[in-house]
Amino acid sequence: METPVDSFLHAGSLVGSSLKEGLARFFGFNQFKGEQEEVMASLMEGRNAFVIMPTGGGKSLCYQLPALLQEGTAIVVSPLIALMKNQVDAIRGHSDDPDIAHFLNSSLTKNEMLRVKEAVATGKTKLLYVAPESLNKKENADFLRSVRLSFFAIDEAHCISEWGHDFRPEYRRLREIIDGIGKFPIIALTATATPKVQNDIQKNLGILEADVYKASFNRPNLFYEVRPKENAIRQVVQYTQEHKGRSGIIYCLSRKKVEEIAETLKVNGIKAAPYHAGMDAAHRSRMQDEFLMQDVDVIVATIAFGMGIDKPDVRFVIHYDMPKSLEAYYQETGRAGRDGGEGHCIAFYGIQDMEKMEKFLSGKPIAEREIGMQLLQEVSGYAETPTSRRQYILHYFGEEFDPNSGPGWDMDDNARNPPESYAGQETAVHLLKLVKATGGKRRGGFLCDILLNRETQETSTYGGTEQVAEFKGTGEGMADADEWAGIIRQVTLAGFLQKKTEEFGVLSLTEKGEEYLANPTALTLYRPKPMRVTTTTESATGAALDQPLFDLLKALRKDEADRLELPPFVVFSDVSLEEMATHYPCNDDELLMINGVGSSKVRKFGVPFIKLIKGYVEDEEIDRPSDTVVRSVAGRNASKVTIIQKLDRRMSLEDIAAAQKSTVDELLGMIEGIVASGTKVGLDYIIEEYLDEESIEELWECFMETENGTMEEVLEEMDDAYSEEEIRLVRIKFMSEVAN
Description:
Layout: H1 4-10, H2 19-27, H3 36-44, E1 49-52, H4 59-69, E2 73-77, H5 81-92, E3 101-104, H6 110-121, E4 127-130, H7 132-135, H8 138-145, E5 149-154, H9 174-181, E6 186-190, H10 195-205, E7 211-214, E8 222-228, H11 232-242, E9 247-251, H12 255-267, E10 272-275, H13 281-292, E11 298-301, E12 314-319, H14 326-333, E13 343-349, H15 351-361, H16 366-384, H17 389-396, H18 413-416, E14 421-423, H19 425-437, E15 442-443, H20 444-451, H21 457-460, H22 466-469, H23 481-493, E16 497-500, E17 506-509, H24 511-518, E18 524-526, H25 547-564, H26 568-571, H27 574-583, H28 588-592, H29 599-619, H30 638-648, H31 653-659, H32 664-676, H33 684-690, H34 693-705, H35 711-717, H36 724-739
Parallel strand pairs: 1-6, 1-7, 2-4, 2-5, 3-4, 5-6, 8-13, 9-11, 9-12, 10-11, 12-13
Antiparallel strand pairs: 14-18, 15-17, 16-17
Helix pairs in contact: 2-4, 3-4, 15-16, 20-23, 25-27, 25-29, 31-32, 32-36, 33-36, 34-36
């Protein structure tokens, strides 16, 4: 049975058909979004076009429909294999003929490549997606010269610009390559481009005269929030658990952090998966498909994920690490709420992370370093702005916005909870005078230490002028350490100070700063928003502890231990009881979230503890806190399986430790974590090399009789008759067999 695409194509009326008729027949839509129709008309009439349209605005349709309506094959230059696959699958969804769209890249076998070229040569393929590297190959260029083409579409065109957030050097040769194939209209498309990036793209592609279509960058349905990067993993787990079952993306800058956070989410009951360039292509493709099919709710990824992914129901995007540019941030947050529903965009901002990125730039060539520093300054400015975050983003892209009444004006944390402002002229002048006294040769930390009269090696050995000494302690009455660090950043963002990247972190006065110092005017500064302070007793996890419940749980543990003839620590540790008295687990699943509680402990010991906690919550009418217990990934990541397998193969501790790139002491810590998570391990073959049966029994009895089962207790009881490693091995065996 033919689809609307097939019947329309076979009707032989491709070129003359109206765009609206094609839209309805091909895609089932009755009207265009924004300026889509004007963009398509321009391309159909043979003119060049430059399109800036936010994520979810319908950029792809701007070239897909003209390609289907015209004779020949449209060449779509795309930067990622995953993106090509996603878009080819989408086009094929409108046709029974799989040859309607193809991609040509390094993932294809020789036979697959021949099949693609045959489909293009016979006119079956209307859209051919290619990587710039594939386009650059002589055999591919020769082939494209031999077939009928309609136009070239440069998707993700920001990759052309060195000022863009995802610069790809091979993109800068596209015009030269296209000219070598023939003369064709060009349409360049991107979701993010400042005026500077836009000009760079058009100039490089030789389309300065192109028809430019620029949609609003405003996404009123997105809520923007920046949080201090403190206990960030705990916050991520809590947020994802509160929004369980919803689709989200979490971005990190390193593969290691991607793996760590994905594993942490999984052990805390979230359907999460990692995604980064270190995985093979098949694995990445599978993760992408599982996310699209909702088999995975949360993808934890490096920036390699998400470009062009057509998933409309992403409800949140979290940046665990701040990105390297506002363009990257805007594009990545734009993957939330593409269906028009609300999307929550959370970024964790830590000044140490920004300093690491600045330090990384210090080893780059001067031109690249200067560009990178300017981009990072914009990111810091966004994170630290006390005003509308939406206004800041839109202003960056050259768009005006009214923060009091514009669409989505209240959809950011600063709009709903503005920070406290104060007259900062005197404070700023004082700081600038100090910077001038140092000769512009000191970092922010040194300035804070001088102002607060903190004795450090740098301040005590500083051989500066008497002018600097005069500033010692003069800032104590103005602000504390955190506030002074914020003041330095605010004054820097205001353009009065600059950081010298080649002398990592050194602050000097700018021309604007010199002018301000000579002629100070009113200046508003902002105090950092107060962090939540816990005033009640705290548990080992740092949250509020219910002491009466903790005492009841300890008494119950003692009763259960006596009944079962076991030491109390075998039932549950003090740390586990503290978490129970903090988070009030009232069922098996919630008890399983407590650190140190595995499924076997829930099964063996859980019933009376859950009963006690439920009764206590009801009797005391307790409103259970939303703060989340975060299970550690210790012993639960990929190394857990590897260690267990090596123990099953009876490898020595030294060999296993070497394979794990750790010491024996660190390895034993990992094994203790595995046992604490509820998994049994077999160490008998190792213990028997150290101890005879009588010694093992003696230590076993000692653990049975101690109150807390600590190494210190047994060492003291045994009067140093056994080594610490011997006792530790028997303790692991004891906990594995008795507690689990």
